Amino acid sequence: MKLFSFTIPLLATTALCGSLVDRSSPLEKIPGDFELADGPAWDGRGQLYIPDVKAEKLYRYRPTKKELTTLLPEAGRISATFFNHGRLYLSDNGNARISWLKGKDKISLAGQDPEAKPPKRPNDLVVDQYGGVYYTLTRQAQVIYISNNGEQNVAVTGIETANGITLSPDGATLYVASYVPKKIWAYQIDAPGKTSNAREFAVMDDGDAKGADGMCIDRAGNVYCAGATAIWIWSPSGKLMEKIETPERPINCTFGDSDLRSLYITGFGGLYRQRMNTYGLPALPPTKGEAMTLTALDNRPATRIPENVDARFNLVFAEEGERKLLADLYTPMKVKGPLPGIVVVHGGGWKQGYKDKFQALGLALAEKGFAALNIEYRLAHEAKFPAGIQDCNAAVRFLRANASSLNIDPERIGAVGGSAGGHLVGLMATGSDIGALQGNGGHAKFSSRIQAAVVMAGPLEITTGSVAERSRLNPDKANINLWTGKDFESGAEMYRLADAHIKISEDDPPILFMAGEHDHPERNEPSREILRALNIYTDIISYPDGKHGCWNQLPWFNDMVNDIANFFNQRL
C-alpha cells in the first residue's frame, strides 16, 4: 500500500513562460540570397527544404552546420514543399502538377492532367497519414485530393482565393486559408478527400493589406498562418493566441530542428527562425513503397507496415482542455483475442521526441501477438510535470475503457519505454494509485494499473542518483529541472512525486530492465534490490556493445524485441 500524499503547485501543468513563442530568443534571419522564399518543409533528418519561387530554385538548409546549399538550381516554379512518409512532395506550380523528389528528379503523382486548359496550378499542399495529398487551386477556388493510389477528387469548392492549407494533428480537420478576404476555413474530414461542415475558423483583422497565406500546425493543434505583417496563431477553438511580427511580409512557415521547437518562416525577406515553447508535428516515417529507400539507414529497423499488422494512426486517447493526445495502435491480423495490450512510451529527456520514434517497436510487438499503443505525451516546453505521466496513465485507462471494441484483455496491460520513457513506465508501475499522477484526460472510472513493465535504460530514482546529481551540479542544463519547472532544492515535493524508486511496494507489477553494455546496466540495481526483497519478479538484460538507444538500432533491436515479447508472454 502506498503512503504518499502530494500537493501539486499551479506551475505543474502550465507552458513555459506562459507563451507559445520563446520571447527570450529573438527572431533570427538565416543568411541567404533569396528572391522570394516560399513553403518550407522539414525532413526529420536535419534538413529544411526551401523553394525560391521567383528564382526557381530549391534550397536545402542544415541548421547544425548553418549551411545553405542549392539542391535544384533549375527547380522551376515550386510554390510549396511538404515532407512525409519518406518523400519530399512539391507543389510544382510552374508545371501544373504535384510531384515528389527522387534524387534530383521530379516524379509526377498519378491522377493529374498537367495539360488541362486553363492550367490547374497548385499553390500549397499538405500530406495526410495515408499518403494522400490535399492541395489548393487558387484560381479555381478549390482544394483537390490525390489518394495514394492516384485517384483525384475535389475535396473543397467555392473557397475564394484558396491558398495555405494544413491538417489538424488527428487528421480530422482540414484548415484552408482564403487569401483575399483573409479568412481561415475549417472542414470536417469524413474520409480521405471527403469533407463536410465548413465553418469560418478565424479572420485576420489587420487592415486593408492582403493576407491569409501559408499555414502550419503545432502538436497541440494551434493553427499558424502567414498574414500581411506577421504569423498569426490561433488555438484549436479559433481563439487568437499570439502573433510573430516579421520585418517583411511572411509567406509560409513550418516547424523544424531536431526538437521541432523552431518555427521557420519564409517570405519576401528570405528565411527566418523563431524558437518556440511548443512542438511541431514530425514527418511520419515511411511505411510502404518506394519511399522506404529515401530515408533508409543501415542500422535502423524498418517502419514498413507488415501485411499481417493492422495500423490505426492518431487515435485520440485523452483530452486535456483543447489538447488532444494521440496514439497509434498496431494489432495483429487474424489473431483471436482478446489480446494483451502494451503502452509504448518514447524517450527524449522529457523534452523532445514523439510517438513515431517507436513505430518499429510497436509494429514488431504487433507481429508478436500484442496490441501496441504508441503514445505521445506532453513534453517539458508544452506542460510541466506531472502532465507527461498523467498522459501515460490516461493511455492505460483508454485501453481498459475501450477493451471490447479494441479486442484487448483489460486484465493484461503492460508498458515499455526507453530512456525518459523508461522512467515514465517505471512511474506507471509504482505510482498507479497516486491521484496526483492521474490527471483529467478521461475514463476516470477505470484503473491505470499495469500488470508488467519493461524499463529500457530509464532512471527510477529522481531524488537520489545521477538525475538528482545533475540537478544539483548543473541546474541550468538539467532536463529534470526543465521538466518539473523547479530545481532540486526548491522542488523537493515535485521530485518526490516523480521518483518511481521510492514508491516501490509489495503490490507493484514485475519489472524487466534492459540496457546496453555501455549504458550503465547497474543504474537501477537499488530498485531491483527492493523488488527482490518484496518477492516481485525483476531482472536485468545487458546487451553486448550496446549504447544508449540501442533498442532502436540493429542488430540489438531484434534481440530486444524477442526479450520484451518473452517477458510479456510470461508475465501478462
Describe the structure concisely for a colleague.
15% of the residues lie in helices and 34% in strands. By secondary structure, the protein is of the alpha+beta class. It has 2 domains: 20-275, TolB, C-terminal domain (Neuraminidase); 306-461 and 500-571, Rossmann fold (3-Layer(aba) Sandwich).
Task: Considering the chains and any ligands shown, give keywords for the structure.
single chain, 572 residues, alpha+beta, Neuraminidase, Rossmann fold, 2 domains, 8-stranded mixed beta sheet, 4-stranded antiparallel beta sheet, 9 helices, globular
Question: Could you explain the architecture of this structure?
Answer:
The protein has 572 residues and is an alpha+beta fold. It folds into two domains: 20-275, TolB, C-terminal domain (Neuraminidase); 306-461 and 500-571, 3-Layer(aba) Sandwich (Rossmann fold). The chain is built from nine helices and 32 strands. It has an eight-stranded mixed β-sheet, with helices on both faces. It has a four-stranded antiparallel β-sheet with strand order 1-24-23-22, with no helix packed on it. Strands 2-3-4-5 form a four-stranded antiparallel β-sheet, with no helix packed on it. Strand 19 and strand 20 form a beta hairpin. Helix 2 (387-401) crosses helix 4.
Output the CATH homologous superfamily of the largest domain: TolB, C-terminal domain
User: How many strand units?
Assistant: 32
Percentage of helical residues? Answer: 10-25%
Number of helices: 9
Biggest β-sheet: strands ordered side by side in the sheet = 25-26-28-27-29-30-31-32
Overall residue-averaged pLDDT value: 93
Uncertain segments of ≥5 residues (pLDDT<50)? Answer: 1-17, 290-296
CATH class of the largest domain: Mainly Beta
